[in-house]
């Protein structure tokens, strides 16, 4: 594998996206950054209540609560309503995380990221109302197919690169990239979701969080880290999409961590030379050599030979052909989501943890 990369050498980079184009795009990202910071400093008021929505079915469950498919009774539009139980948030010491997730979702404004449409709270729950993405999780499609063709991995990976470039321009480190957190729209394009681990940073942070197989070595080694960890997880994602399994895996998380820190993995034989080269440049344990973290930033991805078929401007404007279009029969079609047992929604005559969530 290392020999392949060496043989492939600097020819992996092609003049596909010019420095001038990137500079122009950077100006656009700066404007989006200013918009995000304005939203971050703002204190938006909640604009809805539970009675405005009709809950239809559970789309997913987690440690803090459930996600429902809901219909907005006034507009007739469908949304994903994330109901976070205050008691669980307090027990798991995640008050600050949930507060920042709300602030981040309210400020996001990028085509490949979900955003907050409405938010509110009641005596028992916090509610995040997000766009409903009917095509389901990438994870579901990946498990069904076993692995993606490289054309599909390329299409999805390029959108993830643009999403991470946007988040980093907004001083946000995402920290939870994985197929479960990538949703497929009815157009075949993606949206990144679940910003529970996302954090506004200026400098470095030390929190150990994320999914074991996707953790960067600098997180495991408690070195303090920045945006570089997201580029590492992109390398893991490109590998998993194209192989059907992550590059570092074992039944024991400690063994996974050992493999990650050693940076040892094997690419399947069916990987193209270009993909092997790209992954070898991303899964660098030395962050000073990791693609995405170098002087040219995301431009190094845009000009890598594996992405030569990608028209980045067309992709950004959703004009690049998608390799797979989900069959969505109606706006509220939930056939791409698993079925879950209905859960009883809790009620309380008094406002629980009112002081803890006073700023929400």
UniProtKB/TrEMBL annotation:
Keywords: ATP-binding, Kinase, Nucleotide-binding, Serine/threonine-protein kinase, Transferase. Residues 53-307 form the Protein kinase domain. The gene is LOC113397490. Pfam families: Pkinase. The keyword Transcription regulation does not apply. It is an enzyme of class 2 (transferase). SUPFAM superfamilies: Protein kinase-like (PK-like). It catalyses: L-seryl-[protein] + ATP = O-phospho-L-seryl-[protein] + ADP + H(+); L-threonyl-[protein] + ATP = O-phospho-L-threonyl-[protein] + ADP + H(+). It comes from Vanessa tameamea (Kamehameha butterfly). This is cAMP-dependent protein kinase. Residues 308-360 form the AGC-kinase C-terminal domain. Its EC number is 2.7.11.11. It comes from the Eukaryota. Belongs to the protein kinase superfamily. Signal peptide: none annotated. ATP binds at residue 82.
